[in-house]
Amino acid sequence: MRIDQIKNSVLVRGSILGALYGGSLAFSLWLAYQLRFDFVVPPDEQLAFYRVCMWIIPLKLLFLLLFRQMNILLGYFSIAGMRHLFYAVSLGSMVLTAVRLGMSSTVYAPPRSVILADYVLSFLGLAAIRLALRLRREYLQSQRTQRTVRSKRVGIIGAGDVGVSLARELAIKDEIGLTPVAFFDDNPKKWHSQVDNIPVIGPPEELLDHVIQRFKLEEIIIAMPSAPAKRIREVVQLLQQVHLRFETVPSLGQLATGEVKVSQLRPVEIEDLLGRDPIRLEMDNIRRVLADRRVMVTGAGGSIGSELCRQIASFHPKRLLLVERAEVQIYPIEQELVELGHEKRIIPLVADILDAPRMRHIFGRYRPEVIFHAAAHKHVPMMEHQPGEAIRNNTVGTGQLAEQALEFGVERFLMISTDKAINPTNVMGATKRLAEIYLQALHASQPDKTKFMAVRFGNVLGSSGSVIPRFKKQIAQGGPVKVTHPDMTRYFMTIPEAVGLVLQSAAQGQGGEIFVLDMGSPVKIVDLARQLIELSGLKLGEDIEIEFTGLRPGEKLFEELSYKGENYSVTQHAKIMRFTAQPYPLTLVKKRLHQLTSELPEAELNRTKWLLKRAVPEYNPYLTEPEWEFVP
User: Fold this and answer.
1) What is the chain's alpha carbon radius of gyration, rounded to the nearest angstrom?
2) How far does the chain reach from its first CA to its final CA, in angstroms?
3) Which residues are identified as catalytic?
4) Which domains are present in the chain?
């Protein structure tokens, strides 16, 4: 029964369109004759008109059917629909022209001037029908919406392509309940003009001068996805000052890939305020390293690892091995990549890098050519109390994986390190630094084989365990927001930005380097907390408080970029620096690591830290009470 209903619906729709199209085409041809003969058509031409109608109208309807203009939904008309309409009408006129050129008489083909006029009038007539049906649908939709939803009057900051597209979509989709009534833009050339009958008032600062009352604005939409973060911060502060609710459009990357529509508005996030200018990557170099290659990512389920998988998959590797020991973490990224169409190239592997037999099996079976090693313990306070686990995973695991990479002929091996590895004061940073030392020593021992390298960067926005999710949770609970110290600063990057530069580093590395990403200017953590409170619509000191709790074990007030003895040089990419240092002999590194790991099962907390310091001389450990003297 359901199938019969669908068939009937299609037939009814096709009949309605056929009748409308046929009438329009006949009228267009009649009007073309009238215009050609100044509305005094000779009797023989009138007869010719009827004869031409008998064959050209059915033929044009057939062309419309071939271009799928008979089974479209009534009331929907787009650029693609107009294009197909144009093709169908053009084909009909071409046939008319061919018949006219092939005949000396006008009995079955009209004069050339009639053909030209008919061509224009036919297209305009058919387009007018489709447009009228669409306007009728939107009118009926708006009538239904008016009965249920009161539309809000909104201003749009940004009168560029994104802002204009947003205004047009809001005008069409009444169910969203937003009516654009004013544009604001930083470009003086657009001021005091109109876009789609919506005035461009001036810069956003005009909101301070009675514009809100004049246009009865209830909300503002920020439509500047390519604007610098500094300008977004200024606009947000302005909107908070005038107490207007505000949202923003999706990011430029999401809009460019078609992930979301411009009308899918979202709250302004802290990432929008801390982001930086888009970074241009040398795609050809990255593609040369990844395309049609077998690539392994360890820690594939983590925040950095999963973004590595996303970006690597876009370069179409031959195989992408997702190595992760937690199945609950690997499943989401596997499903996401499958939905993106990468099912045939990804291989999810539940495995622990410390499980040597399992990893040897993976190396032997899949033969990876490029490895991105992101698996690590990274929570600073937690690792401070469990240094043995940090050493096993971050250092021993990295060394073991690197040795297997060398054995199986891997071309490139890049480890994700951290700025906390520089003059470390905590266990996590020291274990990462020791892993760097091991990789440099291993590369120096056999420089013509696997290219070992590391990349250091600071905190990434939105990563698991980062400060921002913790602050958001504290704000949601009503506070206080707990900050360790009023002067604490950290570097922040977005996850996609950091990963893009990691791929760039892997492409230009020759082995033995430690790359450091340009992380911009450091951000005060207390300022970050204050901005998050304001974005939540709360007032510091009235609705919520900030509480200073003091530095935790192993924490620094600020992060450093290099340690004594490291020399840096610029690379071919402005956002990446190359650090080099004299590598330790591999035998010495292995000896120190063996001394360290041999005592791990039984060593007390402070003893473990002192053993780690012997392997990493620049490490300044935080010792717990009671302290005891370590004798080297």
Assistant:
1) 34
2) 87
3) 420
4) 2-145 (no CATH), 149-268 (3.40.50.720), 283-615 (3.40.50.720)
